[in-house]
TrEMBL record:
Positions carrying 4-aspartylphosphate: 75
Keywords, sorted A to Z: DNA-binding, Phosphoprotein
Molecular-function GO terms, alphabetical: DNA binding
The protein's name: Transcriptional regulatory protein DegU
Residue stretches making up the HTH luxR-type domain: 165-230
Species of origin: Paracoccus haematequi
A Pfam family this chain is assigned to: Response_reg
Length: 235
């Protein structure tokens, strides 16, 4: 795929120029992909510091220890996060940092979910070096970049609703996100209590808070809302 094979949504006011991106965090559990991408970025952008993490948890620990990077490249499927969960979680920690989702999955619904959750762009792992570099440069200058041929399945109003829903999920604490993930897996409070080694009463307290934050009345509704923004699954 060439650089022409990527198209941008309407550009935003740039937060920074691409030349101001000096430190990047790559979150990908495939060592060869991660190392190859890091080398490509170092050569193409003259970067001296490219941080890497093999999981979402490791990325969060790195951000806490080393501070915020200038940009993030995030794999869609990680050992501890699938679907839009990675974007939603990182957006809470990095509200102004451009986050690029990278994946072999070009499903339109997944792309829509990632963009609604706050991704600056969504690119294919099959991109050549020239197209990859061009796409990242455009994103770092403020554009929203998506694959050529991508067309949102729903109307713009629905996209706005999904974005608002993603923002609500971003208010969940890490523990609440874990509990919601287990709820979506169909686990009862007693099972969640056992899995997380916390009291069942604590589970119930967290669930009450989750329901309040995402404006859900029942567990089934919470699952439906999570599925709407593809929070825990890649499709």
């Amino acid at each position: 795929m060439t650089a022409a094979a990527m198209q941008a949504r309407a550009p935003q006011t740039p937060r920074q120029s691409a030349d101001q991106v000096r430190e990047i965090l790559i979150v990908d559990d495939h060592p060869l992909m991660c190392d190859a991408l890091a080398l490509t970025l170092k050569i193409s952008f003259g970067l001296k510091n490219v941080r890497t993490a093999r999981s979402l948890g490791a990325a969060l620990d790195g951000i806490k220890a080393q501070g915020a990077p200038d940009a993030v490249i995030l794999d869609l499927n990680l050992p501890d996060a699938r679907g839009a969960e990675g974007i939603v979680t990182l957006r809470r920690q990095l509200p102004d940092v451009p986050i690029t989702m990278i994946s072999a999955d070009m499903d339109s619904a997944m792309i829509s979910a990632a963009m609604a959750a706050g991704a600056q762009g969504y690119i294919s792992k099959s991109l050549g070096r020239e197209a990859l570099v061009d796409s990242l440069r455009r994103m770092w200058e403020g554009e929203h970049v998506t694959p050529e041929g991508y067309a949102p399945d729903q109307a713009d109003a629905d996209d706005a609703a999904k974005a608002e829903l993603a923002r609500r999920f971003a208010t969940l604490t890490p523990q609440q996100m874990k509990i919601l993930r287990l709820i979506c897996q169909g686990k009862a409070n007693k099972e969640i209590s056992y899995d997380l080694s916390i009291a069942e009463a604590t589970v119930k307290t967290h669930i009450t808070a989750i329901m309040s934050k995402i404006n859900a009345r029942r567990r089934t509704q919470a699952v439906l809302l999570a599925n709407t923004v593809r929070l825990f699954e890649a499709g």
